[in-house]
Amino acid sequence: MVIRRFVYLPYYVFKTNWKLFFKYLQTIKKEKNTSYLMLLRGVLYTMIKLNASPLDYFSFRMFDLPREKWFDYPCTGFMYEYQLKMNPPEKRILLKDKKVFLEEFKDFSGRQWATLETLKKDRKYATAFLQQAGKRLVVKNATGQAGKQVDVIDIPANIPDAVITLMEKGHFDLAEHYVEQHDELMRMSPSALNTVRMVTQYAAGDVVILLAFLRISVNSEVDNLSVGSYGVNFGASINLEKGIIDRPGSYLDSSKPDVHFHPVTQVPIVG
User: Fold this and answer.
1) pTM confidence score
2) How many other C-beta atoms can be found within 10 angstroms of the C-beta atom of residue 91?
C-alpha cells in the first residue's frame, strides 16, 4: 500500500499550488513558532502514510492535532480512490457536462437554458429566450469546472447575433437565465448566486446527507471556494438539524482567519 502511494508523488509535484504551499509554510511557522524542518517532516509523513497532498497537512491543520488523529482525515489520494468506486469514470459525464446534467434533470433545475447550437439553429427561439431572460444572462463552458469559464453578461438589446458572437469568442457553449437569489442572500452577498453544497453518500438504498455548507462570494461573480487560490470566497457550515448557520465561515486558505461578518456587506454569518 505504501509503495503504491509513491505513484502519487509525481502528480502532487506537478499539481500542487506551490505558491500557496510556501505561503502556508511561512504563515504557520510564524503562528506556531516552529521550524520549517518540523513542518516539512509532518508534510512528508502525511504524504507517505496518508496519501496526502502537500497542502492537506495545512488544510486540515494537522499541526494542531496529535498524530493518531491525522488518520481520521480523508486526504487527497484516499478521496481520489474513493471517488473511483463511488462515482465510476464512465458515469461522470452526468456531472462533468452541464448540458447533459440539465437535460437529465430538466424537471428540477428551475431555470431556462439553451445551448449555443440551439441558439444558432433557431433564431426565433433565440430571440424569445433572450427576451424572457431580462437584462442579464449567464454563459458557461459546459465542461468547465470550479467556477472557471463562467461569465455574467448584459444582454445587448436582445439581439441573438450579438450574444452568439460573444459566446463563440469566449468559448461558451451554454446560456442560462440569470437567477435572482433570496433577499437575505442578496443582502449578505449580492455579487454572485450563493449556493448550498451538500455532501451525500448513497448507502443501503438511501441517500444520507453527511454535511452541507453555504458557499459565499466576496466581490466575485461565482461562489466557488477555489477562486483566487482559495482566498476570495468562503464557506459556512449549516447545522443539518436546525437548518441554520451556527458557526463562523472559513476559507479553504487555512492561513486566513474565520469569518464572523461578510467582508464587504458586514452582514453576520452566524444565524
Assistant:
1) 0.81
2) 10
